[in-house]
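Next up, sample data.

:::
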Amino acid sequence: MLQPTTRREEAATLYFGDVMHARLKPMGHRFSYRVMSLLIDLDRLEEADQQSALFGVNRAALYSFHEADHGKRDGSALRAYVERRASEHGIDLTGGKVLLLCYPRLFGYTFNPLSVYFSHRADGTLALIIYEVRNTFGDIHSYVLPVRAGEVCGAGVRQVQDKLFCVSPFVEMAMRYHFRIVPPGEQVKLRILETNREGPLLAATFSGRRRELTTPTLIRAFVALPLVTVKIIAAIHWEALRLWLKGVKLVPRRHAAAAKEPNTSLASSKSRAYISEALTDRGGALWSGDGRWARPITTRGESDPEPQRLTDCHGRGDLGNPGDCARRIG
């Protein structure tokens, strides 16, 4: 299991880096932008509130963090929320720290496409990761994934999850996420590869470098990244328009009802029925029951996918370059 660093960190810290999205088919589409993320210890919110006059916790400030933006979104304690979700999977977080990586509010506004909770046991091992996903329709969904021994390696944590929540109107529901995470330290790295039975469709990454949350750092961030939270939501809509102009078809929100459930439980290696059926309708199941790639039943003269090429693409070295991924698979 991954062990934390021994030195005591500040209650809140910042990560500056680049977010990159790449759509690999039916046509290439790539964009990136610079962001500032907040990592905050949910047990030390009062300490975090005192770190800078420009940063507040559950109160107005130039930059701020509000528990009401996450979890049940009712302002209740996020630590209790995470402990409850962990207990649903038999995990005891008593005495362990819970860190949340997200975007802070700027001038009272933020939009978090993805927030990640890193939940630890009392001995410091990483026990659970919660991927809290939002869409622009106002829906929120949490994928609650215990960290299993086989998912941890020297390069970080790798987890796999069926898609259960509508995010983009340009992507179908019959998909699977491949998460690859280097937990926060001097750097933090997130990579999400979204695949269907034909292989990778989308890749998204964030690679950030740690900076202390101080007043001078926040002033520099405000100058370098003005209105960054507005830029995030604007970029989402702008890139959606570009995709539509390129001819990518809209997908009806047939499973929008599932998106109204704010927090459903994790999907294990056993796929949900509608995903398996949807993939079978397209020529056979994509995944075997134990989470490995299953050889699909091809129809209408379709050629078999090449699973080893996909595995190699996201299975070697560092987080990888989605451009390399596209070249290897294409």
Notes: Residues 12-266 form one domain.
